[in-house]
Each structure stands twice: as structure tokens, then as C-alpha cells.
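Hi F.,

I've been meaning to write this up properly since the lab meeting, where we talked about keeping a consistent format for the predictions we share between groups. The idea is simple: the sequence comes first, exactly as it goes in, then the C-alpha cells exactly as they come out, then a line or two of notes. No screenshots and no reformatting. I'm using this chain as the first example so we have something concrete to point to.
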Amino acid sequence: MDKKYVIGLDYGTLSGRAVLVDCSDGKVLVSAVKNYEHAVMDHSLPGGEKLSGADWALQYPQDYLDVLQEIVKKVVDSGVAAKEDIIGIGIDFTSCTMLPVDENNDPLCGQERFKSEPHAYVKLWKHHGGQPQADRISALLEKRGEINNIQYGGKISSELLLPKILQIVEEAPEVYEVADQILEAGDWLAQKMTGSRKRSGNLAGYKAMWTPQTGYPSKDFLKELSPMLENLAEDKLGSDIALAGEAAGYLTQEWADKLGLKAGIPVAAAIIDSHAGMPGSGVCRPDQMMMVVGTSSVMLALSEEGYAKNGVVSGVKHAILPDNFALESGLAAVGDMFGWFVDNAVPAEYAKAAEEEGLNLHAYLSKKAEKLVPGANGLVALDWWNGNKTPYVDGRLSGALVGCTLSTKPEEIYRALIEATAFGTRKILDLFTEAHADIRVIIASGGIAEKNPLLMQIYADVLNREIMVSDTDQTAALGSAIYASVAAGKEAGGYGTIGEAVSNMAHLKDLVYRPDEQRVQRYNKLYEVYCELVDLFDPQKSAVMSKLHQLRHS
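Output, unedited:
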């Protein structure tokens, strides 16, 4: 039988990636990457207009289309596969990354009257400008006795769709009124390529408070939140939903010509980028947890029951893998936090020494830090450099470092920051266990998992679990390709089920990080201190960090 191939598209915070994957074994044959021209807009718009206020994180949607055309054509034009043998496309995207569009599915920011209006642009997942709106949504749900429903997750994050929409309603109502749809960027790309109006159940279930049983939030709740929102679901969202591995639509002739592909191949329903890493890294059993470690981190584990508490959410069944809920949480800053420290707090003599040894500063600090005994530096940190997802779901919370003395060294702080992210991960693992997930093995992926053995060993010791590493550093893109192979189906040369596709297309390295019992015991004691610190800065008990946030932005 002739070989068949799929394309996986992975849209991250700063760039998009395409991979061409062999359906038979999941081998990534060709990849292409392109950065977004406008990157993240947090100070000004493309025309130079300054952004007033704080916590903006916007993007320019045309960048996504420019990336799409360039990277797909590169992998198609590589000549590795004839276009007739490419049977499907899958998409993953950061989420909730959303935008308002007109009746032609064109972004409102492209209209002359809205080019200077920030609310007409894409709001990136890490846009925290809607935190006050998120707080009011949480308060209303608490008043109604609904906050702990699986649909809402125990507390509303500013990363979700509804706070971002409410911010538009309150600060730029004309944008809301004119918008024909308000949708996730992943859904928008799928709709552009196919002409379909379908949306992803994964995106809707985890970020838009949708369930198959209840739909979106009720009209009476939305009306109480704002009269303008009463008909949000019918007027701006839409209920035509495709679940994981299903087709959102089929490639139009127009886009087939632009991408160099054949028309009519399926475009799989979009998946949150970190969620695509679950099949991409080979996680498909209840005793496994996926951990993506990069600029931020995400943890996912399977559960037979829905769960919503302290920032852990379970979405809807079949949103990632069939017949299961998938528990999700993560840390808002990991690599970003290490990068902040290296860029701003390491003395010049360290940079010089690193250069002399032919190492970058991260590798140099790790080399020095690996010689330290856990807890011996007397330091503990909070990993909240970009807000907190679990347990407080509050983007205004900030990092802390406790235990510094006049003899504290950079490598000690660097190790304390790594340990803080491991402790934050353990906090999430504890909640997953409470939700009846019996996790024995962790499968890691992401750039840091590939590059930093010290971090991986610290995680194994703190979590007291074996950690295995995905065989590819492109797990999200591979996961998208896996979904594309299922959307294409067995008759076309793909697969009939996600499980079948995962078993053939995802693989692990021959590398296992195992916990060391002596270090485990020392970290258990340090974790207790970390938990005390977490409790000390509970925003319900202490206003210290919220006051600092107000001062920082006043």
C-alpha cells in the first residue's frame, strides 16, 4: 500500500510550526517554523497606537495566515510526499486565544474604524486584562450556587473566553455589537480553511464553559452578568461542535491552491496546543500523566469522572481522548521564570565563566546547581512569576523568594526556582490524586524536558515518580497530526480510533529519571515549607500581592 501522510500545525505564543508525518509510524519527516511578524503586542498596536492600562497581550491575526501559507507550502514543497498522499490536516493552538470577526469571517481589526481599537484584535491566552471581569463572573456564580459545577471549574480564570468577551462588552461595546462571531483562533483557522462554521469541543469545553449536556452558560446567568450578553451563545458563539479526531470541515479549493494540497481533505477540529501533546507523547492510559515543560507547563491525566476544584478542570468527555475526562492544570511560568533570572539577576562574572566553558548561562548555572544538596541553601520560592493557576487561579499573584542571606549565590537561587516549579507541579499532582487519578508514570515533553537533566531529576525526586521523555520534541505538532490521521479515517490510510493512532505514531526515548529515596525525603520536608508559603499568600487571607499589583499598575 502507498504510504500516506498528514500535516500537524502547532500554533504557539510566538510562532507556528508545521510537520509532515508518516501515518504508519508517526515519524516527523519535514518541519517548518515561522515567527509571527508582530509577536505579542503588549505596549502598542501595529499602527503605533499605544496601549493604555496594563495586562494586554494581543496578536495580529494576519500573522497566523501568513505563517500558515509559508510553513505548509514548505513541507509540501519539500518533495517528501506527493500532495495526493497527504490525507489530512490537524491544528493545535494556544488557548483561550480569541478574536471577533465579521460576517465574512474577517477579523474586525482589519476594518478602518477598528484598527486603533485594541479590543478588535486577538486576545492571547495570557491576556490578563479581564481579571476584574473574571472576578465578577466568579462572584455571580458563587451567589447563584453554581461556581463548583463542572462547567465552571471552581473559579473563573482571566484566561477563559467569557472574561475576555465581558471586557469587550464593558470597554468596547461597539466591537461586541458588530462582531458576527467571537471565536478561538484555532477555530477561526479551521473555518477559514474549510468554510465551515464548526467549533472545537476541546476549546469550547475547556475555555468556553460548554458541555454537551448544558451547552454554554444559561441565558439568565449571562443576562444577569450583562444585558448585552443574554443571547451570546446564539448570536456570537454557535453550537455546531466537533470533538477530538473529528473533522471541523474539508479543505476548500481556494485554500488547497494556497497551500499546495488537494481540495477536500479533512481539517481536524482544533485542539489546545498543550492538549495535543497528550496523544503526541503517547499518554493514553489512566496511570500516566502528561507534563509539558516549556515557557510555562501543563499537566494532563485521564479520569473517569469530571472534576473541578482549585484550578483543576476536566472539560468534557472525548475532548482529548475517547471515553475519558482529562484533568488539566499547569504553571503559568517555568522557562519564562528561569529566563527572567538569567537575563536580569546573574552577575557578569558568571556570564564570562560560562563563555569560557562554552556553555550558555542556563547550562552553567545548572552545572553548579546540581552539586547542591536539596534544602541546604535554606531557600524556597513561589513559582508565581506570571500569576497562579493552581490553587488560586489569580493572574495578579506574583513570585516570592524566601530565605536569602548575604551569602546566597546565583546557582542557589536558580535551583530554588527550579524546585518551586516542581513543588507547584506536586501541588497539582496532589489534586489529581484527590480526583481519583492513580498516576504511576509521568511522560514529559517540551524544550526544557529535552535540555535540562537537572530539572528532570529534581521533578522525579519531588514528585516521587518515574519520569519518561517523549521521543520527539514536537509532541503538540505530532498530536495534531495524529488527530488528522483519525479525521481522515482508515479507508483513506489513517486510523479508525485515536487509541490506534497513538499506539502506532507516538514513541518514548530510552531514558527514565528515577527518584532517589534520600532526596525524596529531603524534598518532602521542603515541600511542607512551600505549602506553608502557598497558604500564607492565599489571596482570601492576605492582600499583600494584590496591593503590590495595584501599586505596580497605578
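Notes:
The longest strand covers residues 15-22.
The chain has 20 helices and 23 strands.

If this format works for you, I'll send the rest the same way.

G.
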